[in-house]
């Protein structure tokens, strides 16, 4: 009851701020312009059966098309009203899903509280972007995969064809049948979705050329360094390009290149973690997803304010489990989210001008994000490198075993033999003869 009242109260405040956006109470306003003008323009193009051509602002995978067309399902409302209504519906679905997950044995409502209280830290920005819808697919993918890897894979795939990053929610699936089922279902769903979109719309891959041409946004880590350099005399400028405020001038291409190298290095770190991880618990897939998205966010050439919606959602999923390693990371993300609101929309003009106030704000926000990323990876690495589960984890795994006996019985005899050897060793640490894995299956060596 209290959670529902909190959701209604905070969303009413967010909606009130959105409807008064043009008043300029919080910075220069213009947050709602994205829906009123840009999304509505694309809606008209998409209704004609094609994706925007030669439009530098269109940088989204083809799955974004149906999302931007969805307000047409509510013809009695204006496009803006329908878009915000559907965004609030997606927000409510996430809240309910997190609350239901939090009431299960070994779980907690902290995740639902994180989402309910964390999203309003961005004020009205989430209601004027479609990142809440994308985050809903990622949250559902993580929460469903433990019980049905195939369904979780499909949710991740649908999110990925809209904004790519939800594919990272499958990174932490336990080795073996769960991973094969989830990844295969995701691949099939992506292929089917892309085929359907290619048949339905013209130019489905038009976004690729514009995405590759993007520069360094002023809110990225590279942009923060360039902003400080500008304050110290660097002759670069800030211009509106590709839907964002970007730096232009000497060394910008070099900074963009370093960002791409760091993104590749982040992928290498994640693959190394996956190969060397030895122990999973029920929270490992959640923690891995948050770590992965953090790594790709901080190394990106672009860090828009709405990216924080993704991180809040993933942190909320982590907090549904009592065995997560990411609690301090969630606190850092809450602080980074609040700082992002001061950056945009409140003092965005200071950031654009690279004043000392703007530079210090960006150093603080991106410093918090960097610290959260390092801490997240470090805690994930150490939690999965442990050779044996802790007593608390063993107990949680035993609960999972009672919920998925039928699933465990379907493992082939070879897997059981290998798992049995590892379980006897683990049982010496937990006091249980045969502790179960996070999906209710016997644990096994990688």
3D structure, described in words:
With 446 residues, the chain is an all-alpha fold. The chain has 19 helices and 3 strands. α1 (2-19) packs parallel to α5 (110-118) and α6 packs antiparallel against α7. The chain is globular. Residues 387-446 have low confidence and may be disordered.
Global morphology: globular
Structural class: mainly alpha
* Low-confidence runs of at least 5 consecutive residues: 387-446
- Rg, Å, rounded: 22 Å
Largest sheet: 3 strands, antiparallel
Main sheet strand line-up: 1-3-2
Mean pLDDT comes to: 86
Strand content: under 5%
Number of DSSP-assigned strands = 3
Q: What pattern of helices and strands is seen along the backbone?
A: HHHHHHHHHEHEEHHHHHHHHH
The span between the termini is 44 Å
Q: Count the helices. How many?
A: 19
How helical, in percent, are the residues?
55-70%
What's the gist of this structure?
By secondary structure, the chain is mainly α.
Q: What layout of secondary structure does this protein have?
A:
Layout (H helix, E strand, L loop, with lengths): L1 H18 L13 H15 L16 H6 L9 H24 L7 H9 L12 H15 L3 H15 L13 H24 L6 H6 L3 E2 L3 H11 L5 E5 L2 E5 L3 H25 L7 H15 L8 H13 L7 H20 L1 H5 L3 H30 L5 H13 L1 H5 L3 H18 L16
Antiparallel strand pairs: 1-3, 2-3
Defining key terms:
446 residues; mainly alpha; three-stranded antiparallel beta sheet; 3 strands; 64% helix; disordered C terminus
């Amino acid at each position: 009851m209290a959670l529902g009242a909190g959701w209604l109260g905070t969303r009413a405040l967010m909606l009130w701020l959105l409807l008064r956006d043009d008043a300029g109470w919080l910075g220069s306003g213009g947050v709602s312009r994205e829906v009123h003008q840009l999304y509505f323009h694309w809606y008209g193009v998409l209704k004609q059966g094609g994706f925007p051509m030669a439009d530098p602002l269109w940088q989204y995978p083809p799955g974004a098309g149906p999302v931007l067309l969805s307000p047409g399902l509510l013809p009695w409302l204006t496009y803006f009203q329908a878009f915000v209504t559907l965004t609030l519906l997606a927000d409510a679905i996430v809240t309910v899903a997190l609350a239901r997950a939090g009431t299960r044995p070994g779980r907690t409502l902290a995740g639902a509280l994180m989402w309910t209280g964390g999203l309003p830290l961005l004020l009205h920005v989430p209601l004027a972007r479609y990142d809440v819808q994308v985050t809903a697919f990622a949250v559902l993918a993580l929460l469903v995969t433990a019980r049905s890897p195939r369904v979780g894979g499909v949710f991740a795939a649908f999110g990925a064809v809209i904004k790519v990053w939800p594919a990272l929610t499958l990174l932490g699936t336990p080795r073996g049948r769960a991973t094969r089922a989830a990844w295969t279902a995701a691949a099939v769903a992506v292929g089917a979705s892309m085929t359907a979109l290619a048949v339905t719309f013209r130019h489905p891959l038009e976004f690729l050329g514009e995405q590759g041409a993007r520069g360094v946004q002023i809110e990225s880590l590279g942009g923060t360094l360039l902003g400080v350099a500008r304050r110290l005399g660097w002759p670069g400028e800030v211009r509106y390009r590709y839907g964002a405020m970007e730096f232009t001038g000497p060394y910008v291409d070099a900074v963009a290149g370093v960002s791409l190298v760091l993104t590749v290095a982040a992928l290498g770190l994640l693959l190394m973690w996956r190969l060397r991880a030895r122990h999973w618990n029920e929270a490992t897939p959640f923690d891995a997803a948050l770590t992965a998205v953090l790594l790709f966010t901080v190394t990106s050439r672009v860090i828009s304010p709405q990216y924080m919606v993704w991180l809040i959602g993933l942190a909320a999923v982590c907090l549904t489990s009592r065995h997560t390693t990411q609690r301090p990371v969630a606190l850092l993300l809450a602080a980074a989210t609040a700082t992002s609101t001061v950056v945009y929309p409140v003092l965005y003009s200071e950031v654009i001008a690279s004043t000392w106030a703007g530079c210090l704000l960006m150093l603080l926000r991106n410093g918090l994000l960097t610290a959260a990323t390092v801490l997240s990876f470090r805690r994930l690495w150490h939690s999965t490198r442990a050779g044996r589960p802790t007593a608390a984890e063993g107990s949680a795994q035993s609960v999972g075993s009672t919920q998925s006996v039928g699933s465990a019985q379907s493992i082939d005899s070879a897997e059981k033999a290998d798992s049995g050897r590892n379980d006897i060793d683990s049982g010496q640490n937990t006091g249980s003869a045969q502790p179960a894995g996070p999906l209710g299956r016997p644990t096994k060596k990688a």
